[in-house]
C-alpha cells in the first residue's frame, strides 16, 4: 500500500482536525445515519482517553464514534477517490452517509476505502467512524474483556503500556487516476561503486507503458528504464548510511500510447545493503553497532496520537545522546516517523504489535500458575493467522524504507514454552518469503534462557530483554553483573549469532538522589546502565544496546506502576535524567562502531 503523496496526477485533502465524538452508550443504535448528537469534539489525530475529564470516557471499553462532514473537491471529476486512515486503535467500521465502506482490525497499520462510486466531486458527505478498543485472545496485542460487579465491561491485558485508543494517525482523502500505480517494491544492492536498484511496479488500468527513472537529490536523472519490472544501475552511487542519509527518488509514470501521462508517483529510496555474517551485523558491508532505545508513541494529553512537534524533538534528543537507532516497541509507528528516519539516517528495528504472547508473565505478577501460552484455547488457535496478517501489513507498508534494517516479529513471547516453535516457524517462513532482504529478530523474555529457548535458531539476531539489578537482584549490581554476563555468553555460545540487548534499565524517579545503590534514584539508573555496558564490552558477539526506555510512558493503573513506567532516561515531558548524560558520554562519536573499537583510518 503506497503512502499518500501529491504528484502531477494526484491530490490530497487532509481530514485532520476536530471531529464530533461520542461513546456508543450515548449515541443512537445506528449513529452513522444522522448527525451525531453530542456536545463533545475530539481532535484527529489523537487518542481520546486523556482529552476529557469524564472518567467514563477514559476507562471506556468498547466502541466510540467519530464524525465529520467532508466535501470532495469539484476538480476530481473522472478521478478515483480514496479514503485513507493512518491507523485506528484497534478496530474500525467506516461509513459514508448510510453505507459501510470499509472495516479493519489492527491498530497500527493503515487501511483504505475506494469511494469512487460512492461520492461525487463537489458534493459533501457525512463520514462516520466507529472505533473499538477491545482486546481479546484473537487480537494483537491480546487481552481479556470481563464484566465487573457494576455490569460494565473491564479490559485487562498483558502488555505494560496504556491501551490508548482512537484515530491516532492522519486521515486523508486522496485522488488518483483510474489507471494508476497501485504498488511499488524497491530492493537495492551494490556492484562495486555502482548501486543496483531492482523494482517491481503494480499498475491498474489500461496503460500501455510504464516509465521508471531514478533521480538524485540535485534533481538529475541517473538511471531510467521501462516496464513493470526491471533493474536500474546508478554509477558512482551515494549510499544511504547511518547518520548520513542520502535519498533518491524513483519516479514511476504510466503513459498512454500517444504519450499522455496517466499517473505519476514518486517513491523515495536509499541504496544500502544489510547482512548478518557470522556474529556481525553489516550495513553496506561494514560492521554496525546499535546504540539507542526502545521507544513508545506516548505523549501527555495526545496519548498515542501522532505529533510532528514531538517527532522532531525526539529525534533531536536521539541525536543529542549519540543514539543511532531505535526499536518500534511494541507496534509499527506512524509512517511519518519512518519517513523522518529515512531522511535523517536513523536506523530502525521495525516491530509488530505481537506483545503479550506470554501467559507466564501474568503468572509471575499474580503468583497464579499460568496456563500454556500456545494452548488452543489461548494463543495456539487463530492467533497465528492474526499474527501473519499483521506481518503482511507491516511489510507491505514499510518494505521500501532504507532506515528499516530488521523485522522484529514479537516482544517477549513465551519462546521457552512448548508450542513456541510450532507457532513461530511458519511466521518466520512467511516473512522470509515476503522480504528475503532483511534479517529477523524477536525480543527474548527473562523466562527464556539459552538452555530452554526453542526458537533462537530460526532468527538472524538474538535480541535479549534483561533486568538484572532491577527485577532480579534489586540493588545488588555486583551479583547482577555476574548473572548478566553468564546469561549473555550462554546465548552467544549456543547459537553463534549476533547478540544485542533490546531492553535493559531501571525505573527512576527524577530528582531522587542517593550516595548508595538506592533503586529509583537517578544515580542507581546510571550505575545500572554502566554495569550492563561493562558486560557488553566483554562479549565479542555483541552488536548493540537499546535502553528501555527513551522516555517515561503511561501504563494501566495498578500497584506495580505509579503514574506510568519510569524507566525513561527522559521524563514523559522529555526532560533529561542523569542517565541521559551518561549515555551521551558513552555514545557520542561512536558512529556505529562498538565501544572500544578504534576509528579506521581513511585511505
From TrEMBL:
Annotated Glycosyl hydrolases family 2 sugar binding domain residues: 14-177
Keywords, comma-separated and alphabetical: Glycosidase, Hydrolase
Residue stretches making up the Glycoside hydrolase family 2 catalytic domain: 274-589
Matches recorded under Pfam families: Glyco_hydro_2 (PF00703), Glyco_hydro_2_C (PF02836), Glyco_hydro_2_N (PF02837)
Superkingdom of the organism of origin: Bacteria
Keyword Hydrolase attached: yes
Protein EC: 3.2.1.31
InterPro entries: Beta-gal/glucu_dom_sf, Galactose-bd-like_sf, GH, Glyco_hydro_2, Glyco_hydro_2_cat, Glyco_hydro_2_CS, Glyco_hydro_2_N, Ig-like_fold
GO molecular function: beta-glucuronidase activity
Residue intervals of the Glycoside hydrolase family 2 immunoglobulin-like beta-sandwich domain: 217-272
PROSITE patterns documented for this protein: GLYCOSYL_HYDROL_F2_1 (PS00719)
Family: Belongs to the glycosyl hydrolase 2 family.
Name of the protein: Beta-glucuronidase
Organism, scientific name: Streptomyces endophyticus
Amino acid at each position: 500500500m503506497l503512502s499518500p503523496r501529491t504528484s502531477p496526477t494526484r491530490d490530497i485533502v487532509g481530514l485532520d482536525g476536530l471531529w464530533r465524538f461520542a461513546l456508543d452508550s450515548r449515541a443512537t443504535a445506528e449513529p452513522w445515519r444522522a448527525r451525531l448528537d453530542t456536545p463533545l469534539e475530539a481532535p484527529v489525530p489523537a487518542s481520546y482517553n486523556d482529552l476529557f475529564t469524564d472518567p467514563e470516557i477514559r476507562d471506556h471499553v468498547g466502541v466510540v464514534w467519530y464524525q465529520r462532514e467532508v466535501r470532495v473537491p469539484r476538480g476530481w471529476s473522472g478521478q478515483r477517490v480514496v479514503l485513507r486512515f493512518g491507523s485506528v486503535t484497534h478496530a474500525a467500521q467506516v461509513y459514508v452517509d448510510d453505507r459501510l465502506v470499509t472495516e479493519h482490525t489492527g491498530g497500527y497499520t493503515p487501511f483504505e476505502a475506494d469511494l469512487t462510486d460512492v461520492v461525487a466531486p463537489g458534493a459533501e458527505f457525512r463520514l462516520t467512524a466507529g472505533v473499538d478498543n477491545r482486546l481479546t485472545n484473537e487480537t494483537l496485542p491480546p487481552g481479556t474483556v470481563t464484566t465487573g460487579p457494576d455490569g460494565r465491561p473491564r479490559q485487562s491485558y498483558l502488555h505494560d503500556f496504556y491501551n490508548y485508543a482512537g484515530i491516532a494517525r492522519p486521515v486523508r482523502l486522496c485522488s488518483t487516476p483510474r489507471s494508476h500505480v497501485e504498488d511499488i517494491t524497491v530492493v537495492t544492492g551494490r556492484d562495486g561503486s555502482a548501486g543496483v536498484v531492482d523494482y517491481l511496479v503494480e499498475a491498474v488500468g489500461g496503460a500501455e507503458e510504464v516509465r521508471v527513472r531514478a533521480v538524485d537529490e540535485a534533481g538529475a536523472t541517473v538511471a531510467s528504464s521501462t516496464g513493470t519490472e526491471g533493474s536500474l544501475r546508478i554509477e558512482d552511487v551515494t549510499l544511504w548510511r547511518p547518520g548520513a542519509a542520502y535519498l533518491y527518488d524513483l519516479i514511476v509514470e504510466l503513459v498512454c500510447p500517444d504519450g499522455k501521462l496517466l499517473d505519476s508517483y514518486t517513491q523515495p529510496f536509499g541504496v544500502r545493503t544489510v547482512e548478518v555474517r557470522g556474529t556481525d551485523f553489516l550495513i553496506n558491508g561494514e560492521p554496525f553497532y546499535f546504540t539507542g532505545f526502545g521507544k513508545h508513541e506516548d505523549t501527555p494529553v495526545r496519548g498515542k496520537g501522532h505529533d510532528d512537534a514531538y517527532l522532531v524533538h525526539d529525534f533531536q534528543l536521539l541525536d543529542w545522546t549519540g543514539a543511532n537507532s531505535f526499536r518500534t516497541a511494541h507496534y509499527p509507528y506512524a509512517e511519518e516517523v519512518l519517513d523522518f528516519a529515512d531522511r535523517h539516517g536513523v536506523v530502525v528495528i521495525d516491530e509488530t504489535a505481537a506483545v503479550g504472547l506470554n501467559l507466564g508473565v501474568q503468572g509471575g505478577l499474580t503468583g497464579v500458575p499460568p496456563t500454556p501460552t500456545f494452548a488452543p484455547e489461548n494463543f495456539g488457535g487463530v492467533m497465528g493467522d492474526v499474527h501473519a496478517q499483521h506481518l503482511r501489513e507491516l511489510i507491505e507498508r514499510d518494505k521500501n524504507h532504507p532506515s528499516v534494517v530488521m523485522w522484529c516479529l514479537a516482544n517477549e513471547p513465551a519462546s521457552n514454552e512448548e508450542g513456541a516453535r510450532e507457532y513461530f516457524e511458519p511466521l518466520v517462513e512467511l516473512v522470509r518469503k515476503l522480504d528475503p532482504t532483511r534479517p529477523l529478530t524477536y525480543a527474548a523474555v527473562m523466562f527464556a534462557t539459552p538452555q530452554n529457548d526453542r526458537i533462537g535458531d530460526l532468527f538472524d539476531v538474538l535480541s535479549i530483554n534483561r533486568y538484572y539489578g532491577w527485577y532480579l537482584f534489586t540493588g545488588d549490581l555486583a551479583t547482577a553483573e555476574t548473572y548478566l554476563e553468564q546469561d549473555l555468553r550462554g546465548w552467544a555460545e549456543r547459537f553463534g549469532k549476533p547478540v544485542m540487548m533490546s531492553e535493559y534499565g531501571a525505573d527512576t524517579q527524577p530528582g531522587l538522589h542517593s550516595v548508595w545503590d538506592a533503586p529509583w534514584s537517578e544515580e542507581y539508573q546510571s550505575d545500572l546502565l554502566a554495569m550492563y555496558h561493562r558486560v557488553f564490552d566483554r562479549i565479542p558477539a555483541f552488536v548493540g544496546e537499546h535502553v528501555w526506555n527513551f522516555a517515561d510512558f503511561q501504563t494501566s493503573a495498578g500497584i506495580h506502576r505509579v503514574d506510568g513506567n519510569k524507566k525513561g532516561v527522559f521524563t514523559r515531558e522529555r526532560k533529561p535524567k542523569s542517565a541521559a548524560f551518561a549515555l551521551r558520554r558513552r555514545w557520542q562519536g561512536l558512529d556505529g562502531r562498538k565501544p572500544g573499537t578504534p576509528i579506521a583510518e581513511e585511505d
